[in-house]
Design brief:
Shape: globular
Number of strands: 8
Oligomer: single chain
Number of helices: 8
Structural class: alpha+beta
Strand order of the largest sheet: 3-8-4-5-6-7
Number of domains: 3
CATH architecture of the largest domain: Roll
CATH superfamily of the largest domain: Ferrous iron transport protein A (FeoA)
Distance between the termini: 18 Å
Radius of gyration: 18 Å
Order of helices and strands: HHHEEHHHEEHEEEHE
Low-confidence stretches: none
């Protein structure tokens, strides 16, 4: 179980790119707005819980468990922003302020019921994508940098079958999204120790469960 403060730190690391690279203590301190001593104490606590790795003089990076928690909090935050904006009529900075409080006070079942009530929106009021829940099958193209998915299946299309064969991918393989390729909505991905570019046609029709 995580405290609201711990969740806020993990979320901050996610925003700073901590899923794919080490984040400096200075950058984290500026993002959180706390004293260096307080940040150091929290980093020690999160490291002991296995949510982050920390290397002095290099920085902090999310572990797989830390990333899972961070994405869950971001998902809650953006769903709450959508609710207070669309259903309650809040505007401006108040949307963010309310979501900051509400993201810590509900369980996963409640947030998924709320998400369904809202019509399963893809983006929040600011146009930012609402991350998918952990454990739900979805196209690989929906995963963000640093997220991994286990291949569950793929659409039965000639181009997709050919892509799976050429890249030697099969059900059960774990694919990690490294980031967007700078053209054509393709993705840099890693699978079975190899890094390659996955075309959008395949990424959009390859179904995975987030791990």
């Amino acid at each position: 179980m995580q405290t609201p403060a711990e969740e806020n730190y993990l979320k901050a690391l996610w925003y700073l790119g901590g899923a794919t690279q080490e984040v400096s203590m200075q950058a984290l301190t500026q993002r959180i707005g706390a004293t260096p001593g307080a940040v150091t104490d929290m980093i020690k606590r999160l490291s002991e819980k296995g949510y982050i790795t920390y290397r002095p003089y290099y920085g902090v990076r999310l572990t797989e468990e830390g990333l899972r928690i961070a994405v869950r909090v971001v998902r809650r935050h953006r769903i709450w922003e959508t609710f207070v904006s669309e259903k309650l009529g809040y505007t401006g900075e108040k949307i963010h302020e309310l979501a900051e409080q509400l993201e810590h006070v509900c369980d996963d079942e409640f947030i998924e019921r709320l998400y369904g009530y809202l019509g399963e929106p893809k983006v929040d009021p600011h146009g930012d994508e609402i991350p998918p829940p952990v454990g739900q099958s979805l196209p690989l193209s929906r995963l963000g940098p640093g997220q991994k998915g286990v291949i569950q299946g793929w659409r039965d299309l000639p181009s997709v079958r050919e892509g799976m064969t050429l890249l030697a991918l099969t059900a059960g393989d774990i694919v990690e999204v490294l980031g967007p390729f700078p053209s054509d909505r393709a993705l840099w991905v890693r699978c079975k120790g190899q890094t390659f570019v996955m075309p959008p046609t395949l990424a959009e029709n390859l179904w995975v469960n987030i791990v």
